[in-house]
Amino acid sequence: MEPSVGSSRIPALLYAVYQLMFATITPILALGATAERGRVLPALVFAAVWITIVYCPVACWYWNPAGWIYVMGGLDFAGGGPVHMTSGTAALAWSIMLGKRRGWGTEELRYRPNNVTNVVIGTVFLWFGWLGFNGGSALSADLRAIQACMVTNMSASVAALTWCAVDWWFERKFSVVGFCSGAISGLIGITPAAGFVGTPASVAIGVLSGVGCNFATKLKYVFKYDDTIDIFATHAIGGFIGAICTGLFADARVVTFDGTVIAGGWINHHWKQIGYQLAGAVATIGYTFGVTMIILFVMNKIPGLHLRVSTFEEIVGLDESQHGEFAFDFTHLQRDIERPDEHQKLVDEFHPDKGSAHTGSGESSPSVKPAGPVRAAVEESKTPVKTE
Length: 388
Prior knowledge:
Elements: H1 12-31, H2 40-63, H3 68-72, H4 80-98, H5 116-135, H6 143-171, H7 176-190, H8 199-216, H9 219-223, H10 231-249, H11 252-255, H12 273-301, H13 311-316, H14 318-323, H15 329-338, H16 340-350, H17 371-380
Helix pairs in contact: 1-2, 1-4, 2-4, 2-12, 4-10, 4-12, 5-6, 5-7, 6-7, 6-8, 7-8, 7-10, 8-10, 10-12
């Protein structure tokens, strides 16, 4: 029941549980970059190792009174560095180690959202939860927590509209998925600044996050890496933008809402703050990328922990090859019943011994059902694709 290291207003146990939430969600954010080709078992092992070696040290740098960024004077209210820059950078490293999805970059395989309705529902949950994420980082139900919620909602709203405006400028379309992506970028951008800035500053942060993250999604085409759902573009870039904006807009007046005292940022003529923010951000990204690459490289050499599924498993889909079940049953019906010839062709190509029994006339025996050979072939297909 002793006071926590974060605040004397809450007990240590409550603070520990709250911090565990941050630690748990961070590697899961990075996992999004591996979709459609990454194995599940290595991801679970990676999460445990990565939290210990990467997340915990970085969180200590920012939030422990003995951490070097904390001592230097760096500001991060709710995790722009420890959560978003680390997860986004880890996603970039994971994307590079895994290599691209089969057919990535071709017109035939232009990946689209699986379910736009679910994207909207997920964004609603995230937006609502982020108010607790940022507001709760005040570690007290006070005026500063309310202000953190206010600027969080404002930044998300402005970033969502900004992302849509950028999309309309280039494509003359107002995308619902774009709106959701913009909202998330605004939530990420405001995270390090939430308890330090006023409401007008949150508008600027929303605009900068929406524009910056939107353009950052094009980096994967420039540098030829396959980040499935743009984790690096939104979380790492958004977190970096938020960290720099904190140095610009941190307001000494806002933090007095709970009795805290800081020198503030550029708006308070504290010019050095931008240097503190930049040093923390660069150190976070550099350390995370280097150590994450080492972890993944070592894991990929350990038998049973290779990172990527085989080519055949990737084609069949990870729902079946990794989980043995489908999110949507109609996909199974369409594949196995409505298109049996195409399905059987896949089996014949990758596993001739499991394919159709050919008659003397060259016709396939009708007694061979597609679902059986596929399932059997998947279980025997354990050869991983060579990672880049």
